[in-house]
Amino acid sequence: MTQWFKNLRYIPIKSVLVTFFILCALPTGLMMVCITPPGQVPDESAHLARAEGLLHGALLAERRVVLSRLTGRPALKAEVQVDQGLYAVTFQGDTSRIDGRPVVTRQDFQALMALPADHRRILVNISNTGTYFPAAYVPATLGLALGRATHAPPYACLLLARLFMLATFLVLGALALILASFGEAALLTLLILPMTLFLAGSINQDGVLIAASCLSCAMLTRGTKGYRLLAMGMMVVFLGAKPPYVLLLGIFLLPLSGAGFLRRLRDVVIAGLPLLFWVGLISLFVVVPFSKAAYLPGPLYTGDGSVMMYATNAGANLHILLAQPSRLLSLPWHAAAQHGVSWLQQMIGVLGNLQIVLPDRYYLSWGFALLVAFSGVALGPRPAQPPAQIWADCLFTGLVVLSTCWLILISLYVCWTPVGLDHIEGLQGRYLLPILPVLLFAIPAWPSRLRLHPLLAAIPSMILGMVGLIYVPMKLLWAYYLY
Amino acid sequence: MTQWQKLRRYSAKSWLIACFILCALPSGLLMAFITPPGQSPDEPAHFARADGLLRGKIMGERMGVLDLNTGGREWTSGEYVDAGLFESSFGRNTEIAGHPVVTARDFGLMRTHPSDHSRIFAENDNTVLYFPMVYLPATLGLALSLALHTSPYIGILFARVFMLTAFLTLGVLALWLAAFGEAALFAVLILPMTLFLAGSLNTDGVLIGMVALSCAAYSRGSWGYRWLALVLLALFLSVKPPYMLLLAAFALPLFGPGFWARARDAVLAALPVLLWVVLAAIFVLVPFSVTRYHPGPLYAGDRSIWLDQTDSAANLHILLSDPSRFIVLPVRSIALWGGYWLEGMIGILGLSQITMPQGYYVLWGVALAVAFSGSVFCRRPQAVPDRTALVNFLFIGFLLLGTGWLILISLYLDWSTVGRDTIAGGQGRYLIPLLPFVIFAIPQWRGRFALHPLVPAIPAILLGLCDLAYLPVKLAWTFYLH
Questions:
Q1: Per-residue confidence at A334, pLDDT binned at 50, 70, 90?
Q2: Chain A residues within an 8 Å CB radius of B176
Q3: Do the Cβ atoms of A477 and B480 come within 8 Å?
Q4: B380-399: pLDDT as tens digits
Q5: Contact indicator for A140, A168 with CB cutoff of 8 Å
Q6: A226 in contact with B at a CB cutoff of 8 Å?
Q7: pLDDT at B9
Q8: What mean pLDDT, rounded, does chain A reach?
Q9: Contact between A33 and B27 using a beta-carbon 8 Å cutoff
Q10: How far apart are CA A4 and CA B9, in angstroms?
């Protein structure tokens, strides 16, 4: 027994965190995979279409002019060919509505299980996911491939795709915790947030992307050239799916005043090139305006306000912004003031298709856990030469984070919001999650000899993670199956 | 030292413990919360015992009540319990297509069931005989819920979580202490049935953990651990006296020095158990009330009469009148239900209504076989001579068979209706506490080749990981989908 105690002493704290991450994320994620009805995750059908298209070699969606079902008018669509049976399954999760919410009855469930395979190819419009760089879909694609190879029914294929996405998330998350030189508690907290785990157990790529962002930042904390390049590669893959986050590349310039700044700048520029190439490619061949229900332009539109519109118009909204440049700040500011709290709640966890809201106390508890975990970055131990040690670097990182948020909002106004609206539409709290790991570099080391044990800062989130192990799956169970 | 090197320093034991927690904690918790109250075997009866203990009732009470059938007086056992909690322990459900289903209305009623701390007498003929030690975790859970003024439904959940915590603690200690056979213990501890029981008020989960810990402590071989193992087994036996023969395992090695000292220790350990059994027989034991029935074909008297209780003496008379029945009845019952019991040992959940696919039972059977047979090739602290290993194998085999036989005979005497030609009441879960003892029957491979202790556990680990999703989802679909 003495030997065992000796062995116990050698178990690194990091391993405890990794074990805890698996303990929280694996069962919760698995329950999400199995309990969440198909299509009850944001844009799951569009994500499935992208992953299934990839299985057949469709790296890019195809731009076509088709008659819009929404408006009855010709419209540009970004389409991909998809297995009909598989695509149909993503709409089977919302067949019965009781008290205005989707529930799964036994009949629905049996119909879902019995849904036959139908391998005919149909064209599906994926104006949003069609533009995403497909790397993050590879796990789901592999899951679908396994399903096809084993002649599994469509529902089982969907579950396999979700399962593969979850497995990827777990691997990336565990690697992030293993590799991080500091800030493990903050990363753990991000990785076990209810929203993160809900996304991780779905075909929505955001779960994998959050883990990729965490891994990228974790590698950057190590500070060596090799890890820096790996981190940059990971970040570029992430940005391929989320170009509006491009300013995050700025953290690879750190330390601003250290030797080799120009070399780091060169690396960032080089890393930006494939990204620019991808953005150029999709702009040329894929990007289309998003179809909307017929609407009249908003108050900021200076043209004929009575003209009916049927799609977004990036050019028009950009013109509105440039016509009065103060709108570049006022619109995001108003949006943040109006929806900021709701975004924060969504960041922590508003599940399903944004209809499963958790109690306020739960959000407060997680907010507190996030606060403690990130405060721990300041008080926790750091390697001898941390990449972000000086205040200028911290301020710069803060600026990077703020400007990324700003750019996301502006891009949503330009690309997603109907023409001329005086507010920004479309932002969801989960969009903020991949930005949070970058905050590790915005927090300076506390200039004292006091050093907190890395586990201490993780304790609140560990407790909440354990509660979430039960609470989050039960919440979904009650939401979808209890009626 | 790199992270990878640090990770490699984890011992196999630590990995097994980590896997155990990873499999057992989430599955157990989810099952504790998903399973509606009253949908685990005898849950209200177990609750009554735990709540009775909270009021200081070490033993239940025997009480005379009016027999509605005969108008005479009959005896029943039980204890006074909190009315609100007791009613909640039955749960609420709606029968839909022959299945108990929890609708939103049922769930609302369960959650809002009001507290009612008046004491009512809960008839409880079976668990009232059990030594109450093992109910302590559930009792603590109930105490906490009362202290926090929670609703009765939350009180039941608290009690379940405390039982699960006790099981996890015992399981971790067992894997930690075991000198060999960790993979086998691990497989037994994460069997679906074990985890289902662990997340309920039924004591069987904690008892399985206790037997596993007893065997693990015994595997270390030192005097202190042997006594710890004996005490744990005695506690187990005070709840399950028909397993009494298992104490003989502590006499091993039969032909080694100190046999008489070991036999004395086993007898000493049996004394408090016997004392408890006698006390329970004198003050609490009553025949089990059952729905009215005619005596079965083995009854030599008038078979047209109506009975509404079991009758140990009558069934003992039936056995003694033709001693071959001591063998014939168990063999017939095994032939009839052996397969079902094996399935039940692996996992028939709920009130024995939630069965798994056949392939699932086969896979778990393979995992158990690998875990136990793999112990042959794992290193042990002490090599046992071949002849001793053979004697151990035969002796433990005899003990396990004998215990199985004794369980069946006691079920015939105490539980089966008078004159039946089969034994009623056998459940697969009764076999699980026997499994940890199998590690002492397994001989050791003496060659140079040795398996890493983790290797035989791999199939069980994989199945345990699958069960993380499968078991809770299976329960959720059964109880909530309609």
A1: very high
A2: 4
A3: yes
A4: 877 788 888 899 999 999 99
A5: no
A6: no
A7: 47
A8: 91
A9: no
A10: 11
pTM: 0.91
Candidates B1, B4, B5, B6: best to mutate against A (most CBs of A within 10 A) is: B6
DSSP H stretches of helix in B322-457: 325-347, 358-374, 386-414
Number of C-beta neighbours around residue A2 at 10 A: 6
User: Can you tell me the distance from the alpha carbon of B347 to that of B333, in angstroms, rounded to the nearest whole number?
Assistant: 20
- A311, two tokens: 């799609």
Q: Give helix then strand counts, H and E, for chain B.
A: 17, 7
Picking from B6, B177, B469, the nearest residue to A33 by CB comes out as B469
Q: With residue A476 as reference, give the H or E element that holds it.
A: helix A454-481
Q: Is some CB atom of chain B closer than 8 A to the CB atom of A91?
A: no
Q: Do A292 and A311 meet the contact criterion of CB atoms below 8 Å apart?
A: yes
**Residue listed under structure tokens 């459900």:** B93
Residues 6+ apart with CB under 8 A from A455: A13, A16, A17, A185
Q: Which of B470, B228, B4 is nearest to A27 (CA)?
A: B470
Distance in angstroms (rounded) separating the CA atoms of residues B28 and B200? 9
Q: Considering only CB atoms, which chain A residues are within 8 Å of B477? A: 109
Q: Which chain A residue lies closest to B21 (C-alpha atoms)?
A: A23
Q: How far is CA B418 from the centre of its chain?
A: 26
List C-alpha distances in Å: B180 to A226, B174, B176, B463: 44, 11, 10, 22
Tell if the CB–CB gap between A27 and B14 is shorter than 8 Å: no
Contact A10/B at CB under 8 A: yes
Those residues whose C-beta lies under 8 Å from the C-beta of residue A36, and which sit 6 or more positions away, are: A93, A198, A201, A202, A352, A476, A480
Residues A411-457 have pLDDT tens digits of: 999 999 999 999 999 999 999 999 999 999 999 887 766 777 778 99
Integer angstrom CA distances of residue B213 from A280, B138, B177: 65, 19, 8
The 3-state DSSP class for residue A123 equals: strand
The DSSP letter of residue A182 is: S
Half-sphere exposure of residue B470: CA atoms within 13 angstroms, side-chain side = 18
Confirm if A334 and A423 have CB atoms less than 8 A apart.
yes
A with B: how many residue pairs have Cβ under 8 Å apart?
86
Q: Which residue is it, tokens 């995001």?
A: A332
Q: CB–CB of B469 and A30 under 8 A?
A: yes
Query: Alpha-carbon distance B251 to A437, whole Å?
Result: 60
**Terminal CA-to-CA distance of chain B, rounded, Å?**
56
Q: Could you tell me how many residues make up chain A?
A: 483
Mean pLDDT of A24-28: 96
- Chain A partners within 8 Å of B9 (Cβ): 7, 10-11
CB-based contact B468 A10, cutoff 8 Å: no
Instruction: Verify whether the Cβ–Cβ distance B9 to A179 is below 8 Å.
Output: no
pLDDT in tens, A42-88: 999 999 999 999 999 999 998 888 877 666 778 888 999 999 999 99
Q: Is the pLDDT of residue B478 over 90?
A: yes
Across A253-275, average pLDDT: 90
Distances in Å between the Cα of B256 and the Cα atoms of A59, A395, B231, B308, B398 are 73, 76, 22, 52, 19
What band does B308 get if pLDDT is binned at 50, 70 and 90?
Answer: confident
Closest CA to B199 of B28, B369, B50: B28
Residues on chain B touching A180 (C-beta within 8 angstroms): none
The pLDDT confidence band at residue B1, using thresholds 50, 70 and 90, is very low
Assess whether pLDDT exceeds 90 at residue A460: yes
Per-residue pLDDT of A364-401, as tens digits, reads 999 999 999 999 988 887 776 555 457 888 999 999 99
Tell me which chain B residue has its CA closest to the CA of residue A179.
B3
Q: Give A 263-292 residues with CB within 8 A of chain B.
A: none
